[in-house]
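User: Okay, second chain of the day. Same drill as before: sequence in, structure tokens out.
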Amino acid sequence: MIDLALKLTPFLIEMLQFTGGVGLLTNEILKELFSTRLYWKLLAEQIYQVGVRSTPLVVITAVSTGMVMSLQFGLGLEKFGGKMYVPKLLAVTILREMGPMFTSLMVAARVGAGFASEIGSMVVTQQIDAIRALGTSPIRKIVIPRVLATLIVLPVLVAFSNIVGNAGGLFIGALELKLDPSFYLLKVLSTSSLSDYLSGFAKSFFFALIISIPSCYFGLTVKNGTKEVGIATTKAVVVSSIMILVADFFLSKLFWIVEKMI
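Assistant: Same drill. Structure tokens below.
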């Protein structure tokens, strides 16, 4: 029991440091965001880096997910004569869960790693210290543009992913399951409700914060040379991905409760 406690102690300390550090960073972001002007050029650059350059990855993931799920649902339901329910099941699953979650995981893998490595390299090469020496806040110039860009872009990518994922499902539904494309499209549009869409869309804002703030935190906490940049990058991806998966459950539960109350 003592050995187990000794093994868990470093992990618990690191978790407490991470929680406190992210909380302090979030507080600094909020103070800087509402008290100073934004660097619009830097924000536009980050929107391009996060959004435009992530689009091919999101498209491939969404199409593949839609096609695989359509095929699996079709083959499974065909045994019970329920093949016509594939469009409804696929649309609801993509809109509520798979679209926002898979898109966020892909963005976390690409963008989260990028944030941590860029900022970590700036810390190692003392660029952050130079920014402070010039009287400029690194939070305002480095962190806020990345957080805002992720908040703006991720919901757009999720909306695009929902469309592309359902298109992939329609393609397989027509090609492999022999469902009429007009019937498939009509079922998707008639059975998907606004609450299905809003449930997944609202998650993307939380996922954007989960990706951007911890990734920036890990980059800023790099201390001992370039070796730690790689460690910080790995931590950013792993922690963001785990937090997205855990948060998805609690957000789904929360939105389900809210829908029952309305």
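The radius of gyration is 21 Å.

User: Thanks, on to the next one.
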